[in-house]
Design goal:
The complex is a heterodimer of chains A (about 250) and B (about 170). With about 250 residues, chain A is of the alpha+beta class. Helices cover about 50% and strands about 20% of the residues of chain A. Chain A folds into 3 domains: about 50 residues; about 45 residues, no CATH class; about 140 residues, Phosphorylase Kinase, domain 1 (2-Layer Sandwich). In chain A, helix 1 packs parallel to helix 3 and helix 2 packs across helix 3. The relative contact order of chain A is 0.08. Chain B has about 170 residues and is mostly helical. Chain B is about 70% helix and about 0% strand. In chain B, helix 1 runs parallel beside helix 3, helix 1 runs antiparallel to helix 6 and helix 6 packs across helix 8. The longest helix of chain B is centred in the last third of the chain and has 31 residues. Chain B is globular. Classes of the chains: A alpha+beta (about 250), B mainly alpha (about 170). The interface between A and B is large, with 41 and 47 residues.
């Protein structure tokens, strides 16, 4: 900042319109130059003299009265509304849109409970397959698997060795689906892996089959337990396993 | 917009320098502003003042063209100021009437900017919007307005001093 610039920016400085960086720079000039300080004082004096002593003409009552009479009642009442910060309008509009989107997302657009569970079951199954970590306890013996799960979960899932029917029990792992800990039984049929997710439920529901990302999912609820089966196995064979599990859960 | 009526009238009164004309211009401007309420962008006060200001200038152009001749172009010759001379403004006893006359005698664009800045306490940005000029023009006009006013106050003070001394 040159001396001339400092002189020019003095008005903006006195008016509080200078950014802080240039204010600091100008203050350095002020500290060095008595002439600039004197000019600054004169400006402040002039400014305060105008503010204190110049006439301020408020609107005369006659004008206010005439305007209130000629401007319809509505704008007089709406006048205070104009003081509402204008930036609030787009903000309010955005907020309204956000609320609508949120309502739509949480209501209409939110995936159903079952769809969400299907996605979680699918994710768990794919993760286990990809990481080749299908079970935490490896055993084909239901009397080993069931107590192992019971000791880790707040419930005791039915565990069946169905190797006689062609479904080999590999083991089990606990997982977390639908906001709760669940039991996952891992079965194998030929080279196909099958995960069976089991958690307690109050309701009963008939078997439903769905397909997600090429995996077949079969779900049903019976005898206080919800069963979700997922595999790349064909539907018919997955149905068979579901039927076997349903039978077994009925006769503990 | 009625809450900003005082600001509107004050600006119009300073620009027209006459009560009756200021009332007419403000009444017309406010009614017009009301019709264009939909055009309201940003704060109400600068918006209303911009309408009042333009109404005043149009009115002056028709009724007192000399007042606004070369409003934006007029070059104001500034006499080199005697920075070290006795400072009349430092004396707080600056006469009220003298100050008001000096402001009223300023060319309209300088009067306007002083009123907006000092009496309405508007920011450079708001003034730029009202006057429809860049902020740089607001800054240069404001500094010239203050120099002109200070000079005229000095001149008045010197004149009255020499009268006293006679």
């Amino acid at each position: 900042m040159t001396k001339d610039e400092a002189g020019r920016l003095l008005h903006a400085y006195v008016d509080g319109e200078l950014d802080s960086a240039r204010s600091l720079e100008l203050e350095r000039h002020l500290a060095e130059s008595p002439a600039l300080r004197a000019a600054c004082e004169r400006l402040r004096d002039l400014s305060s003299a105008i503010r204190e002593k110049a006439d301020y003409y408020p609107a005369p009552a006659s004008l206010t009265g005439r305007l209130r009479a000629s401007v319809p009642a509505a704008p007089v009442e709406s006048a205070p509304r104009l003081r509402w910060p204008q930036w609030l309008r787009p903000v309010a509009a955005l907020a309204a849109v956000a609320v609508l989107v949120w309502i739509a997302a949480s209501g209409v657009m939110r995936p159903s409970e079952n769809e969400r569970l299907a996605q979680e079951v699918l994710a768990s199954h794919v993760r286990a397959t990809l990481s080749n970590r299908l079970y935490d306890v490896a055993s084909s013996d239901q009397h080993t698997v069931k107590p192992w799960l019971s000791s880790r979960l707040a419930f005791s899932p039915p565990v069946a060795d169905l190797s006689a029917s062609g479904f080999e029990l590999l083991g089990a792992r606990p997982d977390y689906v639908g906001g709760q800990p669940v039991a996952v039984l891992a079965y194998r049929r030929r080279h196909h892996l099958i995960d069976v997710f089991i958690w307690p439920t109050e309701s009963q529901s008939a078997a439903r089959t769905l397909t997600r990302d090429g995996f077949n999912i079969e779900r049903f609820a019976r005898n206080g337990m919800s069963f979700w089966l997922i595999s790349d196995l064909n539907r018919n064979e997955l149905n068979d396993l579901a039927a076997l599990l349903a039978d077994h859960s009925a006769a503990p | 917009m009625l809450p900003h009526l005082d600001a509107a009238y004050n600006l119009a009164r300073w620009l027209t320098r006459n009560d009756h004309d200021a009332e007419d211009v403000v009444q017309e401007a406010v009614l017009r502003a009301y019709r264009f309420l939909d055009g309201l962008r940003g704060e109400a006060r600068p918006w209303l003042l911009a309408i009042v200001r333009n109404s005043c200038l149009s009115w002056l152009q028709v009724n007192r063209p000399a007042d606004v001749a070369g409003f934006d172009e007029r070059a104001i010759e500034l006499h080199p100021t005697d920075q070290d001379g006795p400072d009349v403004l430092a004396a707080r006893g600056l006469d009220r009437r003298m100050l008001n006359e000096a402001i009223a005698a300023l060319p309209a664009q300088f009067r306007e900017i002083l009123v907006l800045r000092e009496l309405e306490d508007l920011s450079y940005k708001e003034i730029a919007r009202i006057a429809g000029v860049p902020i740089g023009t607001v800054m240069s006009r404001l500094s010239r307005a203050r120099r002109l006013l200070a000079e005229s106050l000095r001149a008045i003070a010197n004149a009255s001093e020499s009268q006293v001394n006679k």
